[in-house]
Input
Amino acid sequence: MTRHLRGRPAKVALATGVAAALMMGAGPSATLAADQPPITIVINQSPWFDGFRAAVELYEEETGNTVELDVNPFAGSLEKQRAAVRSGESPFDILIINAGFFIEMYEGGFLTPLTEIDADFKLDPSVYTFDDTVYYDPDTKLLDAQNGKLMTVPINPNIPLLYYRADLYEKDGLKVPETLEQLLENAKALNNPPSRYGIVQRGARETFAVTYEFFPYLWGFGGDIFKDAKGGDFSVVINNAESKAALDFWLQLAKEAGHPNTGAQSQADIIQAMLTQKAGHIVVVIAAFAQMDDPNKSAVVDMVDYAQAPAAEGHTPHAPLGHWLGGIPKNISDERKKAALAFFDWFQGYDAQAAYAKAGGPPIREDVLRSDLAKEEPYRWMTALADALPNARITFTVKEASEILAVTELRLNQAATGELSSAAALNAMATEIGEIMTRAGYDAPTLEPLAE
Amino acid sequence: MSQGKAGGLAVRDARRPAARPGAERLPGEGPWRLLTVSPALLIFALFTVLPIVTLVLMAVHHVTWVEGASVWTFVGLDNFRALAGDNLFRAGILNTLIFALTAVGAQMVLGFVLALLVSDIKLGKTLYRTIFLLPILVPGIVIGAIWKLMYNFDFGIINQTLGTIGIPPQNWLGEPMLALASIIVVDIWHWTPFCFLLLLAGLQSLPQDIFEAARVDGATPWQRLWHVTLPLMLPTIAVTFVFRAIIAFKVFDEIFLLTGGGPGTATEVLSFTIYRRFFTEDRVGYGSAMSLVTFLGVALIIIVAMNLSRRRGASL
Output
């Protein structure tokens, strides 16, 4: 109780009150977090934001602390975070960092390892570590749970799941697909353009859009961008046979059962397609679940169900981690760091996570995902998420991720619009990614180009 | 002789440019002038020269971050050399030129025609001007939302309308051949009022006696337009064109909101490429080199356009 509570006599009454609340059932995290200075969190406006905001409001209510949220578009949040950590003193106490970009914060030395703020701080065993992305060893520059330092706390387990029209499945006697081949068949069965497309895929070129969409297919066929990025082997394999099979399949899905304008579909578009009954399937981040059953936004209330996005026959499905991590900047005062850590400590608790889930934010704890809550109709997505998370993988482990993404977003989009063949798109990606990595000092040999 | 001498001096004096009133320098005036101008010079240096100097410095460095501190590595002209091999930069140059010339050209013609049509209207002057000016008053983000909905493949009003006459829906923003044209249409809608406003002001300030004389001489409306209005309007047209061209070369919001540069590189423009390289990819050195080259290129185009316009004006 004394870990985060400043011992001023004037606050004894409050501490007593909190202790009473604890006895009446409030979680210990609330007690630990009490009496902290105000903090500011920089975050992006994602489909799960409403859930996070509700969790923050609960934190304020339970602890009496004040939290200000600085909400931005996806790319805008990253730019603000970069500017903040590179300035004399960050205006933000907590950075909510996306899986695509956290590594540049680690490598740049912008974050304070959490155990340097409080040596006793650790993640609850039920909290997912998301392919160990919360740990970083600055000496080896590897994500390493054994030797690395705890750098961040997971905020959101954002991974894509398969959303499908359960009502149509029941009507047509379809089975939930366990392979990509079955998904293609089901998508074709539900394809009835222009009133409904069998599947709507995210093919637009943005900061991290079509690449994110493609990862489950890429890994689902055994392909990858690098041979073993997590192990430090950056040989470029994006144009190997497996990767080509993946891209060919993804394009086939679009051609035979997809939207005629796949190359222009953003995440918002594909969610909108599902909400308006225009899509039989979408593969999109779990965070969008909250909109599906919202009668003010959705024409598919109680019609959508969720499953792990499948892999090709004989392969293990791997969802790309698009999760969000919370970090504490180095360039703020110790008092602010402690206040930020107090929020994390509260946030990772069971009660906070259950409240977060009920408010529309996917929780970061396995015990919440596997709780009785998952049996209730509004939380039917929890089991699919819990099934998919153990195999979820990190997409990029180098700070050059944003440069690589610029390449993959362009080339995959060109493949989606038919401007480039799959082989040409993959060959172009391989060459350009090889150049980026070589320029950055990595050993990044490339394969022979695919025949076009 | 002395008279002649005096006369000769008088002739030379007449040829000499007349001194400006009050041009004689008073004692201590030089430093005083400098002192009074110095705040403006300082502000100019602080907000214009300094950023450009910083940009030049960054353009010849590779900037990385280690332990929370920036590390600048001198790379000479490497960042500039790399521009030649940058496919997005090349696409950006081409698309920006197509965009600027097409959009501004159409806006000038439409703006001038509209200005001609309404210049003599007296009734409801305030109303029509307000209506014509509305598009420039609408914030960029709203324009993006409006046109994105209108261009939507499945729900957009344009495809819905085409559907009623049997035309299949078009991928306005997703088809490489259509996307840039669709953006240009939005820009024309957005900025034609700007041209209209400036050109209307120019038309209404023209001396009416010349038009009266032309009418008296029996000039047809077409002859009056071609031989009187257009030559007199040339300075206004040139200034409007240059203003609009500068804004068009910097186009960003419409692209950002509607297509993000896609599909492929179909709507990639220079400002957007710079934004990607500089901010999203965090390559400040390379992004600075790209900014400098773009800045110099646009400045060159504007200077050439101004010179051509000046020469054309002088020859009339």
